[in-house]
Amino acid sequence: MTADTTADLAARAAHRHVVVIGGGIGGLVAARECAKVGMRVTLLEADDELGGAIRRADLDGVAVDAGAESYATRGGHVRTMLAELGLDDRIVTPNPEGAWLVGAPGVDAAPLPKGGILGIPANPFAEDVRRIIGWGGAWRAYVDRLRPPLTIGQEHSLGALVAKRMGSKVRDLLVAPVTAGIYSADPDDVDTEVAAPGLNEALTRAGSLSGGVAQLLTDRADRARKAPGSAVEGIAGGMSLLIDALAADLGGLGAVIRTNAAVETIERTDAGWAVGLALATPQDDLSADAGLLAADADEQGETIAADGVIVATEEPTARALLTAHVAGLGAAGQAPQIEIVSLLLEASALDASPRGTGVLTVPGSHVAKALTHASAKWDWLRESAGSRHVVRVSFGAQGEPAATGALDDDAAARLALSEASALLGVALPESALVAAHRARFTQSQPASLIGASNRRREIRAAVAKSAGLGAVGAWLSGTGLAQVVPDATAEADRVRRALLWGSDGRLSTP
Predict the structure, then answer these.
(1) pTM score, whole prediction
(2) Which helix (H) or strand (E) holds 221?
(3) Which residue pairs from 103-107 have beta carbons closer than 8 angstroms and sit at least 24 positions apart in sequence?
(4) Spacing of C-alpha 483 from chain mean position
(5) Neighbours of 59 (CB within 10 A)
(6) Which of 27, 173, 277, 322 is the most interior residue, by most CB within 10 Å?
(7) What is the spatial distance between Cα 490 and Cα 496, in angstroms, rounded to a whole number?
(8) Sheet holding 469-471, edge to edge
(9) For the chain, how far is it from start to end, CA to CA, in angstroms?
């Protein structure tokens, strides 16, 4: 690129205004990508704070993650962004002790077996596996080694594959708790190749499912020796520090961030787009770069002019905004309501971390889906909590509303305390509860569900047909920062390239 072209590109970037709707991690990343090249950016968040599924709560002076508490390290995208934001010195790994399982018939509680993938054991006769599925379950699972292998890719359903090869006890007592905890989904609905890439192929090579799991574990161990590290990481002080850093970086890049700014409509105009807000803010509260077209708070909402719009909201809101401009969105995916109740406890019985870093439940055995003993999992939180303990209790899954959904906050806290007592196997009277916080989420359909990948590709292609329009977020990328961050980066890059270079690849005029 010549110096003249670079100068032209910089000038054009300065004349391009992008509005990002939604201040979760996807929206913040997309806004940053546009602002980094000199574009004018306005980010609009309907809530009174940024972050979306990444939230901070204060429990009697102890700052905790009320939503996402970690990120998967695969791909290295999140770690790279943390380094760019100066947070790499705060990256921490969890306590490797691991979690427990409760709810298996005849078993009070047991550590989750080691040496498996998504709960599928490499050795069904291992003691920690037999303890949960029993000798009968272990022998049934061993039949897997006597059955003929499947053709690669024949079985898409993880649950069906496991039940066929190793029996219902492995599926229901080992795999289902893991898929419920990770994806809030039944294993029958999980796509084998998306959730466990290479498993079908390894099964064919090894001649059995357990042998295929063993091969994949060996491959992973080899990769880990070459690039050691945990599968998940967190941030000392909480994941919300990432939100703070992104917001600060956007401010430094000249972007305008507005909270309590709910968008009602987006409309195509001759010049680009018009973004309509529900309620107007007095014009003198806005940056001149925000592109205000109308601000009569008594008569109408605001309208913000933009060259490009990136929708970064939850799926229901995104669909409401996109439908008029995008043909082929298809049917909405299932979006379960998830609740996480965080508890600060005075309970010396938890000092020894009796159930490791947390508990997964066999579906149907408890009203809580899972529990995280957060102050046992993260050293920084244990130090912050002192003699007290932080426990997070999760409710809700695909097709199963959260048991706390109809309760008020006090009742939800009491139910969470009761479930924590049962799952951790210790008496936790109400007097042990120091403080509680309740967070509600609409969980996007996991990328690992059968058919989800094709559905998302079709939506992406449909959105790309509308010039200057983009869409990001977990409902398109799949859940988890390791998927949301690179997806938002790529989609923002597509939109900004089109605005700067034009659809024909030529440098566009302002």
Answers:
(1) 0.89
(2) helix 209-226
(3) 103/177, 103/361, 103/362, 103/363, 103/364, 103/365, 103/366, 104/132, 104/133, 104/173, 104/362, 104/365, 106/134, 107/131, 107/132
(4) 8
(5) 20
(6) 27
(7) 10
(8) 256-258, 40-44, 17-21, 308-311, 469-471
(9) 19
| Number of Cβ within a 10 Å radius of residue 265 | 14
CA distance 55 to 503: 38
Distance CA(167)–CA(164), nearest Å, equals 6
3-state secondary structure of 197: coil
Q: How far apart are CA 358 and CA 342, in angstroms?
A: 13
Give the pairing type, strands 109-111 and 469-471.
unpaired
**Number of Cβ within a 10 Å radius of residue 146:** 8
Q: How far apart are CA 83 and CA 91, in angstroms?
A: 9
Sequential pLDDT tens for the chain (510 residues): 555 566 676 778 888 999 999 999 999 999 999 999 999 999 999 999 999 999 999 999 999 999 999 999 989 999 999 999 999 999 999 999 989 999 999 998 999 998 899 999 999 999 999 999 999 999 999 999 988 876 555 678 999 999 999 999 999 999 999 998 888 889 999 999 888 888 988 998 899 999 999 999 988 776 665 555 568 999 999 999 999 999 999 999 999 999 999 999 999 999 999 999 986 544 434 343 433 333 333 345 789 999 999 999 999 999 999 999 998 887 776 667 889 999 999 999 999 999 999 999 999 999 999 999 999 999 999 999 999 999 999 998 877 789 999 999 999 999 999 999 999 999 999 999 999 999 998 777 667 778 778 888 899 999 999 999 999 999 999 889 999 999 999 999 999 999 988 754 444 555
Give the DSSP H or E segment for 483. Answer: helix 481-501
Output the CA–CA distances (angstroms, integers) from residue 278 to 295, 302, 304, in the order listed. 11, 7, 12
Alpha-carbon gap, residue 132 to 114, rounded angstroms: 12
In angstroms, the CA 211 to CA 201 distance is 11
Side chain identity, residue 236: A
Quick one: tokens of 141?
A: 């699972």
CA 444 – CA 227 distance, rounded (Å):
31
Q: What's the longest Cα–Cα distance across the chain? A: 75
What DSSP assignment string belongs to 326-368?
-S---SPPP--EEEEEEEEE--GGGTT-TTTTEEEE-TTS-S-
Q: Count how many Cα atoms sit within 13 Å of the Cα of residue 413 in the half-sphere of its side chain.
A: 18
